[in-house]
Amino acid sequence: MILFKMALRELLSHKKRSIVTLLLSAFSTALFIFANALNNGTHNQLIRSSVEIYPGYMQITNRAFEENPNFDNLIFDVANVTKTLQKIHEINASAARFESYALYSTNEQSIGGMFTAIEPEKEAHVSRLKRSLVEGEYLTPSDTNAIYLGAELAKRLKVGIGDTLSFISTGADYSFAADNLVVKGLFKTKLYEFDNASGFVNKGYFDEVMHSRNIATHIIMSPTDLEQIDVVTQKVQKALGHGLEVKNYKTTLEDLILAMEIDTIFGYITLGIFFIVIFFVIGIFAFLSVYARIRQIGVLRAIGTTPKQVMGMLLIEALILGFLSVGLGGAAGAYASHHYEKHPIEITSLVDVDAQEYAKQYNMVAEATFPSEFNPPRIMLDMLIMMLLNLMTVLYPIVLINRFTPTEAIRYV
Amino acid sequence: MAITPDAIIKKVEHNIQSDSGYSKITMTVTTARGERTMKMESWNRGHEKSFIKVLYPKQDRGITFLKVDTTMWQYVPKIEKTIKIPSSMMMQSWMGSDFTNDDMAKESSIVDDYHAQITFEDGQKYTLTLLPKPDAAVVWGKIVLEVAKEHFVPLLAIYYDEDGVQQRILYYSDVKFYGDHYLPTVMTLIPQNKKSNKTVVKMEEVNFDVVIKDERFTKNALVRYSQ
Known about the structure:
The structure holds 2 protein chains of 2 kinds. Chain A is an alpha+beta fold. Chain A has 2 domains: 2-51 and 256-411, no CATH class; 58-252, no CATH class. Chain A has helices spanning 2-13, 15-53, 78-86, 120-126, 151-157, 192-197, 203-210, 229-240, 249-252, 254-291, 294-302, 307-342, 348-362, 376-401, 406-411; strands at residues 58-62, 91-105, 110-118, 133-136, 146-150, 164-170, 176-187, 198-202, 218-223, 244-248, 345-346, 369-370. In chain A, the strands form 2 sheets. Chain A has a 6-stranded mixed β-barrel, surrounded by 4 helices. In chain A, helix 1 crosses helix 12 (307-342), helix 2 packs across helix 12 and helix 10 (254-291) runs parallel beside helix 14 (376-401). Chain A is elongated and about 100 Å long. By secondary structure, chain B is mainly beta. Chain B has helices spanning 5-16, 101-105, 110-113, 219-224, and strands spanning 21-31, 34-45, 49-56, 64-68, 71-76, 81-84, 114-121, 125-132, 142-148, 154-160, 166-178, 181-191, 198-207. Chain B has a 13-stranded antiparallel beta sheet. The longest helix of chain B has 12 residues, at 5-16. Chain B is globular, with a radius of gyration of 17 Å. Chains A and B meet through strand 2, strand 3, strand 6 and strand 7 of A and strand 6 of B.
């Protein structure tokens, strides 16, 4: 208790020095927490967007489909797979798709593109296709001869809502398939290439024209708990057997995840440099403040204070400052993280010019908003790191000062 | 004097092509899940022009194709539309078979596009290796062609992609004699990435050097002769 009182008195008697150290540490803590939160939030958003726009969190395909994506390697009993999935409570929703290729033709143009069948209502639960509607209407399960077309593809085909276009394609049984379609809705996602080459029709209609009843190329699923996705993936795989392959976004979007991880590593390197600077600034400050008190510590030692007690007193000082500054900085960082999670930072001008071109080139999602992630356990961890950093800054001066004998310390100028 | 590779190819092409020909074809596509048969009529004028009309199955009857040089059009009665096949679709399957649109649209002789070399020869056959000429707009990285010495009839052609990976093998069989043409009337195409698939083209009726009106090779003919 006496050590605590002494430490507190020391801090209060050098208010200016204490406040500067406290503010420096608090600012560093807040910045560290917010930088981490922004990094994680932006990455999470990018992954979420990329996954939810179309690919989905989990997918089932024929095991041979990835290597040979042809019509011999399909899911041939969709009803049975769906029945199995309904028994797995960890699966929130599932929807079958049949991805195919078609030549779209109008009087003006003929363009090749993706021609995909979806179950409109179920699809709305596994992707953002429905939410990406920009004009007209989304598909319904009773639609025939209606196409939900990417806005960029519509632009290239020079068609709008209500216009007719034709498609020719190869059916699931390799027969010739062709029909006329009316443009029912236009969608725009943040994936330029996707909007530029995709058209969707109701699977009920598609099955008639393409002879694909009870057949699909993919079944897309969304888990009830995203945190458990790896466990759920294994569970579904076990339930479906070896002929079908179950993957989640960590595999299907492996490149994106890897890019995010690399970006995170670079983020940590930047933060590491920031840490070193902060460590030295706080460290020098601590060093100078401890060294300015060598004579005082010499007197304390001369009247019987042990080196351990000196160390204890200095550590308590650092702890008090640390608690206050990390608490203050933590609160500020947490507030900023929470605020910018709800109201993401918008840099529209950046996205308008360079980012959109970059996104087009690499078929990535061009985001105009940068949300942070409010993650209390993560914030607590960041605060703990900053606390340890604060303590570490006084360790060296303590070791140095305890090397002095009381007589040397009293005589120190 | 030894025969040159180009001379071998020209003799092969003389056997399988005509200046002005007609044929009735049956095409059978076999996949892991079943078999489909199509019947067609075909008219051609050299390499440059050809016209194909689908006769069977019933739902595809009346689909017509016109190829002039490297451009290909298709008329589909169900949608009442003539569609020009864009170059981006040339490697897509032709009528669900293992042949591609590009196979149907090839304009020139392989002598024009490939540099040929005899890489093997025995008493029965020549083996020629064809590598694309620097400026040739072709899709294959290499073709190995086996030709029977007797009558210069093609036996098989192995197609490789640009990475040297074998993509498909075309077998020629059932040689019949028409005038001065020794024609293999059955062609069997086996894609290497779909081992259970094959497409067999059988020429049921062949007429070399028939008179065909110019009008047959126009876009209007696609609709007119679709009936």
